């Protein structure tokens, strides 16, 4: 649900989240006036916080308590109210640059060192996967019209495995497409895609330059991008991929992890069920959006981490995503720092592999 906030409401939401991140205590209007020197009365702040609560962005853990950000409140905070920390980016870049001076280190040792640095700077659990060396490449792609509104996309890989999916054609109002015209366009489009993608890894499908499509084929772009993104997801690294984990002891000192059972479920996921975690941290961000993928609280599909935030990004060899780096911590994390360190680490590992 899209929530429209005034500038004052945005500022009060920002201040509430910042104060809660720093203190882990429910936030009241008086604390905001004193801490952030807001030039309005506590009553005005209480009214604004009441509006934010009705919008589902804040909640009261107890009747007499202050407010706490909800997952939706954190989402607006992350999407609209902050930018990654330049200070944290420079700090991580410098430390990682110093790490690379050890020329006799193996790649695995380099990844272990990077994971430890990220855990220290972010205060979160750090997750880094080993780079993938075996990649599936595309041999042939064909678009076939099966009825006036649907197309079957058929992909043949280098090991002659065939994958297919039915896709809905983009609809054009008040017009009925001529099947012969559509079939001719699909053949031309198939030829274009084969010329662009044959011999390239499936991981590269997401980086196809769609601006090369002629204008009359642009209408197919969205459904093709959707299919290629789905195909890329289905060819993610296998469950045997190792995830390096660092920083567990630090983050588990946070008050959110005071219950032993919750801690045990997270530890079990990290140690015994990495195959469930892998698809989440190896997900490519949406094109044109932030370079990291951010899952806040209930946005996580795995029950053990639904009280956590997972921030991840892929690192690359050339244009191909071959591994991932991420941080896992409470939803009450320092998002500016966490986003910055994940982006900086992904850039660093991409440069190291090049």
Automatic annotation (TrEMBL):
<dbReference type="GO" id="GO:0003677">
    <property type="term" value="F:DNA binding"/>
</dbReference>
<dbReference type="InterPro" id="IPR029016">
    <property type="entry name" value="GAF-like_dom_sf"/>
</dbReference>
<dbReference type="InterPro" id="IPR036390">
    <property type="entry name" value="WH_DNA-bd_sf"/>
</dbReference>
<dbReference type="InterPro" id="IPR036388">
    <property type="entry name" value="WH-like_DNA-bd_sf"/>
</dbReference>
<dbReference type="InterPro" id="IPR023120">
    <property type="entry name" value="WHTH_transcript_rep_HrcA_IDD"/>
</dbReference>
<keyword id="KW-0346">Stress response</keyword>
<dbReference type="GO" id="GO:0045892">
    <property type="term" value="P:negative regulation of DNA-templated transcription"/>
</dbReference>
<keyword id="KW-0805">Transcription regulation</keyword>
<protein>
    <recommendedName>
        <fullName>Heat-inducible transcription repressor HrcA</fullName>
    </recommendedName>
</protein>
<comment type="similarity">
    <text>Belongs to the HrcA family.</text>
</comment>
<dbReference type="Pfam" id="PF01628">
    <property type="entry name" value="HrcA"/>
</dbReference>
<comment type="function">
    <text>Negative regulator of class I heat shock genes (grpE-dnaK-dnaJ and groELS operons). Prevents heat-shock induction of these operons.</text>
</comment>
<dbReference type="InterPro" id="IPR021153">
    <property type="entry name" value="HrcA_C"/>
</dbReference>
<dbReference type="InterPro" id="IPR002571">
    <property type="entry name" value="HrcA"/>
</dbReference>
<keyword id="KW-0804">Transcription</keyword>
<keyword id="KW-0678">Repressor</keyword>
<feature type="domain" description="Heat-inducible transcription repressor HrcA C-terminal">
    <location>
        <begin position="108"/>
        <end position="339"/>
    </location>
</feature>
């Amino acid at each position: 649900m899209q929530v429209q906030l005034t500038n004052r409401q945005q500022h009060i939401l920002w201040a509430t989240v910042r104060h809660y991140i720093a203190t882990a205590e429910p936030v009241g209007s008086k604390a905001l006036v004193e801490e952030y020197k807001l030039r309005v009365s506590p009553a005005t702040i209480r009214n604004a916080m009441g509006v934010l609560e009705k919008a589902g962005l804040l909640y009261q853990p107890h009747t007499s308590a202050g407010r706490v950000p909800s997952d939706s409140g954190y989402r607006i905070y992350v999407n609209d109210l902050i930018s990654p920390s330049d200070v944290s980016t420079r700090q991580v870049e410098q430390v990682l640059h110093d790490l690379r001076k050890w020329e006799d280190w193996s790649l695995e040792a380099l990844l272990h060192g990077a994971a430890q640095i990220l855990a220290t700077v972010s205060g979160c659990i750090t997750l880094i996967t080993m780079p993938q060396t075996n990649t599936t490449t595309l041999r042939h792609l064909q678009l076939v019209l099966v009825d006036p509104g649907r197309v079957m996309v058929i992909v043949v890989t280098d090991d002659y495995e065939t994958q297919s999916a039915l896709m809905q054609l983009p609809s054009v109002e008040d017009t009925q497409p001529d099947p012969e015209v559509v079939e001719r366009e699909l053949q031309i489009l198939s030829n274009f895609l084969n010329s662009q993608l044959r011999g390239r890894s499936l991981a590269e499908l997401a980086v196809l330059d769609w601006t090369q499509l002629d204008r009359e084929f642009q209408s197919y772009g969205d459904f093709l991008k959707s299919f290629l993104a789905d195909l890329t997801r289905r060819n993610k690294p296998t469950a045997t991929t190792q995830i390096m984990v660092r920083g567990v002891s630090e983050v588990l000192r946070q008050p959110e992890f005071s219950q032993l059972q919750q801690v045990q479920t997270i530890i079990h996921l990290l140690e015994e069920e990495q195959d469930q975690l892998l698809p989440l941290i190896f997900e490519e961000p949406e094109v044109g959006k932030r370079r990291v993928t951010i899952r806040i609280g209930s946005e996580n599909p795995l029950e053990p981490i639904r009280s956590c935030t997972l921030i991840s990004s892929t690192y690359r060899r050339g244009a191909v995503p071959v591994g991932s780096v991420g941080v896992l911590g409470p939803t009450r994390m320092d998002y500016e720092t966490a986003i910055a360190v994940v982006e900086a680490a992904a850039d660093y590992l991409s440069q190291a592999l090049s």
